[in-house]
């Protein structure tokens, strides 16, 4: 078992009213799964993903990640946990504009205080694996959307996370590029990485091994 | 349209309350300070300009060569003026001028007054308007005197002053004078100050000196005829010099003096009267320097500049937030001109508020300002149409440039570019960074200045001056009594008091006493076929003991040896001047038969201000010259009680004169007035500069953090810690401070080195000053930026990433 959500509730108070963002979510994720979260806009997909990614908190419920009780952890420990085990991929890539492809890949390793030689090896390995060696000295603005997302995924993977969280990874891409990215996810999943993606597209959802549907913060 | 501009500008300012208030606070403080400082500056520059003839009046000074180099003096002998009038063409008028206190008696009142002894032309050359009595040529009769309104009030109260007879103590005797004219009080911008003006011929030493070329004791002012160049004066006086100073010149040649560039050994030059307030005589040269005044104006300018930079930087930095608005307006059909005016109106509003508040603050603070900076400036003195016009013009220029530049930048943006919200920030960052480097450079410069000035001041205050300044008190021996008798009476009065250790007297003070008067007297004599010049001090018994001067050879004047009365005690510098192996074999010679042997040598002590090296000095006990100051050494305990005891004793000895005693350390402290004023100014300038720079930095950091939220979010998600992010954000600012430091330090070093050149006794300019200033600026900048960035770094990244 990789992670387990028990009776998760999340709400905000607005104008004296309690607005539920997540209602009674129960979810078990095993290692090696590929889960797609679907639902209309505002159904709480991204919120759920953020909760799983520990970027966002929740008001009620229990969250166990690799035998750690996330809900009882302090902010700092929680941050350490997700930094170690989780990689994030975003719809708008969120690469650092001022850094080259190589430097973008190197950044997480720098923050994790890897040694120079190790970093170089890991970055080279990743560039190789994603076939972007030729682009390593380019800046994000010089790449196409698909290539940028490729770099985004490579960056998410570089510190060997157990779980990849992808929030509409193909939302800004054309269909061909989107397909390539999905193929890549599938391949990564087959290599053993657990993936949870949020998507609008039925077709992309099919790549996953399990589909979770959300409506108004509730699993259906 | 204009109304609309104002309305939108007003709303926009309200919407951005933080920035608007930061701007207004910074600008109004800067304006207030700039107004006050420039008032003080212009006040200084307006010194003596109120005289109608001020441009044609000059002070005569002489320059001569002796073996040590050139010497300058403004003291002249009594016959010189008439000789100049007779022999030099182009001199319209001239007056001798001697400032010396005089005791005036009217009825029961006996007041010590600041008197000037001048020739009749004084009041036709200088503009001191008469308000009562004889209007034209008020000093025509030698028996008349001129007094100021204030003096009239002091002497006669509400009685009519004109025609009253007062007694003036001259040469120990009261002489009657008639008050002929009352003039307005001396304007505060006047170098010439007096309470009473008396004809020069009446002065006590006049009759013995009127044909004596050797006794130089007064100033001379001349008024040149129109179209006469002051440079001709030197040439025109050469024959006069050759006729009357031949012996001096021959002596100088014999002693090995080098002639000056013109091949002359003695000459007269003219110093423009308007320069007098800015003149120092140092190392044998006349230095006219208004740099102190320009420094004041410079600080005012820099402070204003920093505040303006803040305004520009904030406006530019905020342009990113306003892009959408600009694009929208453009698509609605706004022209560039209209946009420019809209933004400019905003600037105008900010400036209008800031200047109004600034003016208000400066009016509220002017009294404190006057006491702290020792200036007599007031709005009334400064408010001339020219100044008001200048002020309005500079305000207009500032609002035009400072307010217009960001407005121009904003209105220039292309429509599509602005609608997309894309701003090419990189180029503008350079302007901003450069401006911030400049700001912090100025701040670091002033901080360094503060540190160096303070240490030099401290150094001078704590320097061992060679005499006991803590336990010794001096006070002027004014009043009608003979000074030696007065001193003897004091000795008797205080005889039983165990706290009073020694009493003595001299004809000069150490430092500036409460009476504020300073003097120096010098004489030269022939010693073994060369001329030796020395400062001269008339002393009474026990002077050395009272001041704790250290004797290195011989003894002090002693009551046991009657012959000591015609002996001399000299300092080491003077002993060196004699060049004798045993200085006790040397003597002061007034003529071949009249020789005063040296009976003692004291260790060098600072009898002059600390910006001078220790010169030779000779103390003698001539009873022909009066003592002007009494010195009392008291026990270290009960200083206040001793002060009271001395004061009471003096009131009994001389009931009509005021006791103006003060301890020597206070006197010495008063000699640092100029330095203190400068230190206070630079310090407050530095504090303001750094505070204003930090307001700017704070605003910029706010904006930058906002601009970089997305980046901060990304970095956090991929593993950056709070400290990583904080470092990332502050690094850029610290880099700017670093660059400022590198630029400002050499400049500061140069300035400080130049300034310290004024002082023969000075601190070492250690690199520590510069490093401290840099670190201080860095730390303050860090604190300013820190709180904001840490907050930004702590923020939950999903907030900034939730853009989809």
From TrEMBL, chain A:
Pfam families: ABC_tran. InterPro entries: AAA+_ATPase, ABC_transporter-like_ATP-bd, ABC_transporter-like_CS, MacB-like_ATP-bd, P-loop_NTPase. One of its GO terms (cellular component) is membrane protein complex. Keywords: ATP-binding, Nucleotide-binding, Translocase, Transport. The keyword ATP-binding applies. PANTHER family: CELL DIVISION ATP-BINDING PROTEIN FTSE, LIPOPROTEIN-RELEASING SYSTEM ATP-BINDING PROTEIN LOLD. This is Phosphonate ABC transporter ATP-binding protein.
């Amino acid at each position: 078992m990789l992670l387990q959500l028990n009776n998760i509730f999340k709400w905000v108070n607005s104008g004296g009213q309690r607005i539920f963002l997540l209602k009674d979510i129960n979810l078990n994720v095993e290692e090696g799964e590929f889960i797609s979260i679907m639902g209309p806009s505002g159904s709480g997909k991204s919120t759920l993903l953020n909760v799983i990614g520990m970027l966002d908190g929740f008001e009620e419920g229990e969250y166990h990640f690799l035998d750690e009780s996330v809900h009882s952890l302090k902010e700092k420990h929680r941050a350490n946990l997700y930094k170690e085990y989780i990689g994030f991929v975003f719809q708008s890539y969120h690469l650092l504009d001022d850094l080259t492809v190589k430097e973008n890949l190197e950044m997480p390793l720098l923050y994790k205080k890897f040694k120079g030689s190790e970093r170089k090896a890991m970055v080279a390995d990743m560039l190789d694996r994603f076939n972007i060696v030729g682009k390593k000295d380019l800046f994000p603005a010089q790449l196409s959307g698909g290539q940028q997302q490729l770099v985004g995924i490579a960056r998410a993977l570089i510190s060997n996370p157990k779980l990849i969280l992808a929030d509409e990874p193909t939302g800004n891409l054309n269909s061909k590029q989107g397909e390539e990215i999905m193929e890549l996810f599938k391949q990564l999943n087959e290599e053993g990485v657990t993936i949870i993606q949020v998507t609008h597209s039925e077709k992309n959802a099919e790549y996953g091994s399990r589909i979770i549907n959300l409506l108004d913060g509730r699993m259906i | 349209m204009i109304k609309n501009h104002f309305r939108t500008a007003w709303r926009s300012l309200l919407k951005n309350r933080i920035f608007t208030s930061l701007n207004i606070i910074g600008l109004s403080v800067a304006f207030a300070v700039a107004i006050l400082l420039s008032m003080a500056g212009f006040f200084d520059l307006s010194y003596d300009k109120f005289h109608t003839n001020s441009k044609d009046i000059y002070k005569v000074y002489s320059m001569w060569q002796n073996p040590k180099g050139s010497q300058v003096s403004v003291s002249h002998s009594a016959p010189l003026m008439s000789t100049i009038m007779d022999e030099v063409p182009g001199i319209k008028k001239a007056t001798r001028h001697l400032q010396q206190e005089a005791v005036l008696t009217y009825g029961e009142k006996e007041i010590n007054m600041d008197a000037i002894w001048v020739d009749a032309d004084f009041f036709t050359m200088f503009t001191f308007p008469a308000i009562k009595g004889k209007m034209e040529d008020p000093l025509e009769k030698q028996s008349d005197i001129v007094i100021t309104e204030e003096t009239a009030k002091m002497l006669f109260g509400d009685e009519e002053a004109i025609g009253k007879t007062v007694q003036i103590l001259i040469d120990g005797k009261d002489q009657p004078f008639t008050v002929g004219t009352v003039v307005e009080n001396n304007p505060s911008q006047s170098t010439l100050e007096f309470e009473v003006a008396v004809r020069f011929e009446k002065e006590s030493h006049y009759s013995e000196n009127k044909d004596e070329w050797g006794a130089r004791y007064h100033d001379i002012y001349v008024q040149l005829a129109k179209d006469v160049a002051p440079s001709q004066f030197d040439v025109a006086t050469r024959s006069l010099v050759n006729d009357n100073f031949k012996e001096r010149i021959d002596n100088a040649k014999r002693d090995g003096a080098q002639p000056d560039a013109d091949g002359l050994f003695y000459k007269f030059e003219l110093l423009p009267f308007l320069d007098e307030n800015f003149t120092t005589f140092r190392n044998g040269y006349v230095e006219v320097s208004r740099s102190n005044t320009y420094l004041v104006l410079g600080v005012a300018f820099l402070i204003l500049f920093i505040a303006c930079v803040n305004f520009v930087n904030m406006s530019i930095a905020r342009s990113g937030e306003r892009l959408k608005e600009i694009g929208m307006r453009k698509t609605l059909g706004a022209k560039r001109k209209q946009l420019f005016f809209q933004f400019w109106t905003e600037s105008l509003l900010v400036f209008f508020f800031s200047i109004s508040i600034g003016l208000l603050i400066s009016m509220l603070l002017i009294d404190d300002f006057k006491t702290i900076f020792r200036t007599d400036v007031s709005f009334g003195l400064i408010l001339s149409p020219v100044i008001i016009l200048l002020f309005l013009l500079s305000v207009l220029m500032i609002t035009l440039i400072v307010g217009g530049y960001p407005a121009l930048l904003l209105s220039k943006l292309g429509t599509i570019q602005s609608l997309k919200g894309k701003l090419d920030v990189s180029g503008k960052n350079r302007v901003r960074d450069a401006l911030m480097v400049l700001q912090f450079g100025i701040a670091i410069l002033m901080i360094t200045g503060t540190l160096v000035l303070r240490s030099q001041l401290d150094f001078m205050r704590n320097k061992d001056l060679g005499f006991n300044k803590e336990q010794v008190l001096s006070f002027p021996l004014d009043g009608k009594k003979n000074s030696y008798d007065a001193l003897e009476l004091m000795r008797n009065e205080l005889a039983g008091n165990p706290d009073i250790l020694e009493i003595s007297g001299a004809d000069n003070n150490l430092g500036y006493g409460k009476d504020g008067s300073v003097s120096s007297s010098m004489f030269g004599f022939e010693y073994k076929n060369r001329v030796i010049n020395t400062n001269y001090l008339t002393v009474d018994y026990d002077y050395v003991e009272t001041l704790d001067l250290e004797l290195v050879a011989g003894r002090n004047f002693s009551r046991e040896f009657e012959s000591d009365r015609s002996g001399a005690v000299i300092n080491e510098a003077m002993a060196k001047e004699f060049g004798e192996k045993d200085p006790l074999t040397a003597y002061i010679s007034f003529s071949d038969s009249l020789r005063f042997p040296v009976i003692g040598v004291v260790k060098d002590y600072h009898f002059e201000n600390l910006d001078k090296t220790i010169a030779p000095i000779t103390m003698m006990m001539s009873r022909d010259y009066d003592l002007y100051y009494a010195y009392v050494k008291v026990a270290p305990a009960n200083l206040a009680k001793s002060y009271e005891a001395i004061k009471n004793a003096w009131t009994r000895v001389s009931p009509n004169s005021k006791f103006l005693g003060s301890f020597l350390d206070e006197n010495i402290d008063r000699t640092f007035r100029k330095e203190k004023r400068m230190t206070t100014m630079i310090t407050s300038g530095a504090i303001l500069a750094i505070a204003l720079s930090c307001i700017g930095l704070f605003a910029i950091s706010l904006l930058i953090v906002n601009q970089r939220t997305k980046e901060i979010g990304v970095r956090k998600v991929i593993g950056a810690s709070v400290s990583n992010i904080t470092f990332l954000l502050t690094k850029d600012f610290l880099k700017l401070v670093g660059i400022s430091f590198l630029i400002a330090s050499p400049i500061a070093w140069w300035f400080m080195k130049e300034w310290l050149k004024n002082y023969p006794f000075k601190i070492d300019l250690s690199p520590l000053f510069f490093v401290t200033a840099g670190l201080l600026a860095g730390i303050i900048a860090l604190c300013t930026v820190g709180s904001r960035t840490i907050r930004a770094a702590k923020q939950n990244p999903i907030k900034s990433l939730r853009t989809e």
